Known about the structure:
By secondary structure, this protein is an alpha+beta fold. It contains three helices and ten strands, in the order H-E-E-H-E-E-E-E-E-E-E-E-H. Strand 8 (133-143) and strand 9 (146-155) form a beta hairpin. The radius of gyration is 17 Å and the shape is globular.
Amino acid sequence: xxxxxxxxxxxxxxxxxxxxxxxxxxxxxxxxxxxxxxxxxxxxxxxxxxxxxxxxxxxxxxxxxxxxxxxxxxxxxxxxxxxxxxxxxxxxxxxxxxxxxxxxxxxxxxxxxxxxxxxxxxxxxxxxxxxxxxxxxxxxxxxxxxxxxxxxxxxxxxxxxxxxxxxxxxxxxxxxxxxxxxxxxxxx
Length: 188
């Protein structure tokens, strides 16, 4: 699987359940969200605008996505809502690796560029260095309608949070239906 296929398969509406372990406090917290992921072509105006914001030639982008979320976390019970645009810039020598541009970061609410790597197992690894912390996240599909995610957040030289998230698709998209058909035909 390449990055474009991963984003295409991710398109749709998802129910997300996250368990975060706050290591400094020795406590865990549950969160639930609805995510909407829209796959964007490389020439989409929002992808072009994001590339220009980072002073990167928009012609080097391979794809993009818009992610919108609406959820709650156990501790604060506040609504967590937002949206961000992503763009991928593959490495010219290795298209399975590259930069991931974000309109807004996950750990810090500011624009941030990280790196991505598509593994031979179809898992996507994202590494992002923020001003005061860094995160490493691994995402993979257990099936076309079940996506898993693990992440670690490092702050001040040590681990501060680890999370596990399961994301269940709410309705089937054409990319998920095609992936299911492909999986069924290869298993028979």
